[in-house]
TrEMBL record:
Top-level lineage group: Bacteria
Coiled coil regions, renumbered to chain: none
Residues covered by the Copper resistance protein D domain: 48-148
Native source organism of the sequence: Thiohalospira halophila DSM 15071
Descriptive protein name: Uncharacterized membrane protein
Alphabetical UniProt keywords: Membrane, Transmembrane, Transmembrane helix
Gene Ontology, cellular component aspect: membrane
Transmembrane stretches, start-end: 6-27, 48-71, 83-104, 133-153
Length: 154
């Protein structure tokens, strides 16, 4: 029962985080560029991030708790975990680091620029966020692929 709960929590958290980034990058971004002028687009993104980032914080905590819970309660520790688990762990920390950078640097600057109605500055920060989120989305997809098929490749 515990094993199932840990996996469900882990997978749902990954789906929320990576799925949210994928949706934002592949669908929201192009539609916003097509339909909105820069001031409205920057306000939209600031609002999206303000609502999405608390979920990312929650998913990061849930992913770490469920992942390490699984590793130590089910596998008996990192030494017993397969290479695919170590790959997910390492790439997951890269993803967390990228999110922390976005949250504490360009997102805060974006929010300040939007509040000051400095659209040019806001656009620079949004472009930086977009690039990092694009890379984080690709990493997330890779981690999902490793999680789904990694144990079968060894």
């Amino acid at each position: 029962m515990l094993q199932s709960l840990l996996i469900v929590l882990h997978v749902l958290s990954v789906v929320i985080w990576v799925g949210g980034m994928f949706f934002a990058w592949m669908f929201t971004r192009p539609a916003a560029v097509e339909a909105l002028e820069p001031p409205q687009r920057l306000k939209l993104w600031n609002g999206i991030f303000r609502r999405f980032f608390p979920w990312v914080w929650a998913t990061i905590i849930a992913i770490l708790v469920s992942g390490y819970g699984y590793i130590f309660l089910i596998f008996g520790g990192m030494g017993s975990a397969g290479l695919y688990v170590h790959a997910m762990n390492g790439l997951g920390f890269v993803m967390i680091a990228l999110f922390l950078h976005v949250f504490f640097a360009p997102y805060r600057r974006l929010a300040r620029a939007v509040a000051a109605e400095d659209w040019q500055e806001g656009g620079r920060h949004l472009a930086q966020i977009r690039m990092i989120v694009g890379w984080n989305t690709l990493l997330g997809i890779l981690v999902i692929a490793i999680g789904a098929g990694g144990r079968y490749l060894v």
